[in-house]
Specification:
This protein is mainly beta. The chain is built from no helices and 11 strands.
Length: 117
């Protein structure tokens, strides 16, 4: 089970289960995760989770900015679309996120396999 860990000021405040498909983040109602933060756009970013075409138990996860005003950051760099790798840190407004596999027993880092291109 893939989860998104929500971190504010270095503290994990919540986590959300993510299914295959799209997971949207923004201020507006209707997003998968709604954030009350003036630095977050109404429809800020989305995660796209797909099963790997090579192995059914592996997921490919892509982060996309949805034309936000303040940008979406991955490991400190502004991105428009980027496939996630192990230990990536996503930043949206004042919020940070990490994705991890809840079944791995290690919830402190990104725990999914992304094959090299």
């Amino acid at each position: 089970m893939i989860k998104l860990k929500h971190i504010v000021n270095g503290v994990v405040v919540s986590d959300f289960e993510i299914q295959v498909g799209e997971f949207t983040i923004g201020r507006a109602k209707g997003n998968s995760m709604q954030l009350e933060d003036g630095a977050v756009s109404s429809h800020h970013a989305k995660l796209i989770v797909e099963r790997s075409p090579y192995m059914d138990s592996i997921f490919d996860i892509t982060l996309e900015d949805l034309g936000s005003t303040n940008g979406t950051y991955l490991n400190g760099a502004k991105v428009t679309s980027k496939r996630l790798s192990h230990s990536d840190l996503i930043k949206i407004g004042t919020h940070e996120f990490k994705i991890y596999d809840a079944n791995s027993g290690i919830g402190t880092q990104t725990e999914f396999y992304v094959p090299d291109e």
